[in-house]
Amino acid sequence: MTQGSLLRKITDYANRADPYPVYAELRKTPVVQDEEGPYLVSTYWEIHGLLHDPRLSSDARNLNPQAAGALTDEEDTALPPAFLRLDPPEHDRLRRLAMTPFGPPHTPRRIHAMRGELSRIIGELIDGFANHHRIDLVDHFSYPFPVTVICRLLGVPREDEPRFHHWAETLAAGLDPAPDEDAAERRRTTQQARTELGRYLAELIEERRRAPGDDMLSALAAGHGPEGQMTQAELLSTASLLLVAGHETTVNLITNGMLTLLRNPDVLTRLRARPQLATPLVEELLRFEPPVQLLPQRTPLADIDIAGVTIPKGASVWLVLASGNRDPQRFLEPDRFDPQRKDNQHLGFGSGIHSCFGAPLARLEAQLALTELARRLDNPRLLEDPPEYRRNAVLRGPRHLPVAFDGLRGRDD
Asked: What is the pTM of this model?
């Protein structure tokens, strides 16, 4: 494999089911400039260092014109970049405002208090498998579960899911570099989805202002704190981010998790007998099969020297998180799935100031979901391996996961 082929190997759908041999090849040169232009960073310590380096920007407006050419131009829409794509101090201000109604330190028990409701949603979805002996885990569980949860949390009507489903999928697809696709057409469809989702959320926020509820949109719309409140454009951009990111990654985490358990039936049996295994198991899943494989939009604010390479100011930098998670210089036997792994400081939720905003909720959703699926499905087994994967190289996970089982155990069995 030549260096020039690495980027296309990563994005090639033929490697989606198993990208890890490509990553192993990539790690032979920890930092390399691809012939397409971006610098690819593939080893754990180099990725970790850059995630904590204030010289590495998340704001696409800092890219040089050549590097920025293939990226979606969010400036053409009415919405500003979400805080995920901003640098301090604006990133920090908006993230703090968003965190206030979401969790610690301002609302420390919001996620914990959802445990009972999460369990109830999981139970109802699994009850729906009755009289079936095969399901598509994605369509029947992994997608509807986190969508229902994020709708409840934000205050978005669950019955509106058909309206925002296409917008969410389009925005998620917009994260995928897909070098062979028409960049102008991708920009057009992504901008249209952002605009339409923004209009939908604007109507919803106005309703919440008139009749506030116990939900995040109501709290964000009211938003009177020491730092003031978000502008309308910032509020819409943040709400869009939370709605899309709040379910897209968790769908993959749960589906990748069940696929891994079915490939490791001894671990599934242990989880059924010892539900407390769910906590370290989910951490190992985040290392072994992370739902976010890479971060393709970073750029230095100044020249950065790393691993013997100088990455120039304004260049495009891709941080290949999933490769860092399999780095043998950091993890012993990295290609082995080991739920009892010690010192598992993975990159599954990123690291540094941009570490995943929704990590506490995603962890809890995955722990409860996988535990209950393992407990209630009698003799579950894969019907297709490898399954059909989504096209997206960034948000990697099966599009469908056909699973057969002999029956269901009751909720209290």
From this structure: 0.91
